[in-house]
Amino acid sequence: MPQPVKLYYMGPMFRYERPQAGRYRQFWQIGVEAIGSDDPALDAESILLMINYFKSLGLKGLTLYINSMGCDKDRPKYMELLREYAEANRKRLCKDCQKRIDLNPLRLFDCKDESCQLVMKDAPKLLNYLEEDCRKHFNMVKRYLEMQKIEYIVKPELVRGLDYYTKTTFEVISPFLGAQNAIGGGGRYDKLVEEFGGSPTPGIGFAIGTERLAIAVEKEGAFDSIEDRMDVFIAVADQSTKPNAIDILYALREAGISADIDYMGRSLKAQLKYANRRGFKYTVFIGPEELEKKRVAVRNMETGEQIEINIDELIKVMRDIVKAA
Asked: How far apart are alpha carbons 253 and 14 in whole angstroms?
C-alpha cells in the first residue's frame, strides 16, 4: 500500500476513569491517522487539519500547545535526570505521582494536582535535552506552522496521556471547558507499530472528543451562527407526479442545493404555506401540465417573482440562481 496511509474514523469508545463534565465512560471520538512517514511536514498538516476543523465549526479563542517528546536517543539520559529530581521532591508529590517516579516519570507532568504541578514547574525539561535530529524535526514543525500563520505555544510540560508518543505532541484547548479544557490532541508514534511486532513504521495522529467538542461549540454560541440554509422546495400539484418530483429532488441535492419536498400529502396551498414558514428561498412547481410541457415554474418566495425553466436545464439554472443569491 502506498505510504503515507491517511485514515480517519468516528465511533464510540470506552474508558475506565472517573466520569467528569464532558468526559464519560462511553464517549464518541473522531480520529485521524497518517502512517508511514516521519516527515515534519506531516506533523504540521495534522495540526492544521484539526485547527481548520475547529474553525469550520465556528470555534474561536482556542489555544494550540505543542511539544517534543524526543526519541530513544535522547530520552534515557533525560529520564535519569528527571527521576533524580522527582526522587529529591518525593514527599511533595501526591501518592499517584510517587508511584510514577519508577513506572514513568514523564507522566508526572500530566498530573492535575496543584502541589505536583508546582514541583514539576522547576523540573528539567526534555526540550533542553533533545538530540540533533529531534531538535531539527521540532524546529521544522514550528516553521511549517508559522508559514501557515498558525499561532502556537511551546509547552514543555505537554506529554499527553499515552506513553507511546515520540517527537511531536500537540493539544488544543477551549476557554469554555474549565479544568478539562482539551477538545483535541495527538502526537507522533514512530515506534508503536514496531512495539506490536511490525516493521518500523512511523505515524502521527490526533483524536477529538465529540461530547466535549459539542459543549465548547454550544458555550461559545457557535451553533447560533450556523445557517439553516433552505434553498429549494418542490411543490407537487398532483401526487401522480411525485416520482418525477423525487427524481428532481435528488438531482438538486447532488448538485449541492439544499432541497426538500412534502411528505405529508398537503394540498398545493398548504405546501406553499409550509415552504414560506420554513424559509425556503425558491419553490419549484411540478404537475402533470409542467411535465407534459417539460417546463417548470420557479417562484422567488421573497419577491413573488415567477419564471419558467426547461426541465432539462433546471439543475444548472437553479445552481446558478442559488449561488448568486
From this structure: 36
In angstroms, the Cα distances linking 253 to 19, 226, 318 are 41, 19, 11
Q: Residue 302: inside a domain, yes or no?
A: yes
| Domain count across the chain | 2
| CATH code where residue 10 lies | 3.30.930.10
Instruction: Report d(CA 122, CA 151) in Å as an integer.
Output: 25
DSSP code of residue 59:
-
Is 82 contained in some domain?
Answer: no
Burial 110-134 (b: 16+ CB within 10 A, else e): bbeeeebeebbeebebbbebbeeeb
Q: Which three cell numbers stand for residue 252?
A: 438538486
Give the chain's length: 325
Reading the block at residue 118, the C-alpha cell is 508546582
Tell me the C-alpha distance between 12 and 311, whole Å.
45
User: What phi and psi values does residue 182 have, to the nearest 5 degrees?
Assistant: -80, 130
Same structural domain, 247 and 193: no
Helix (H) or strand (E) holding 293: helix 288-293
> 66 with 154: CB under 8 angstroms?
yes
C-alpha closest to that of 126 among 203, 182, 71, 202: 71
Helices of type H across 59-113: 75-88, 95-103
**Residues 237, 217 within the same domain:** no
| 46-73 confidence digits (pLDDT tens) | 999 999 999 988 888 899 999 999 988 8
The single-letter DSSP state of residue 28 is: E
Cell of 203: 505515524
Question: How many CB atoms are located within 10 Å of the residue 33 CB?
Answer: 18
List, as one string, the DSSP characters of 254-317.
Answer: HTT--EEE--S---HHHHHHHHHHHT-SEEEEE-HHHHHHTEEEEEETTT--EEEEEGGGHHHH
**Does residue 51 form part of some domain?**
yes
CATH number, domain containing residue 293: 3.40.50.800
Summarize pLDDT for 25-43 with one digit per residue, the tens. Answer: 888 999 999 999 999 999 9
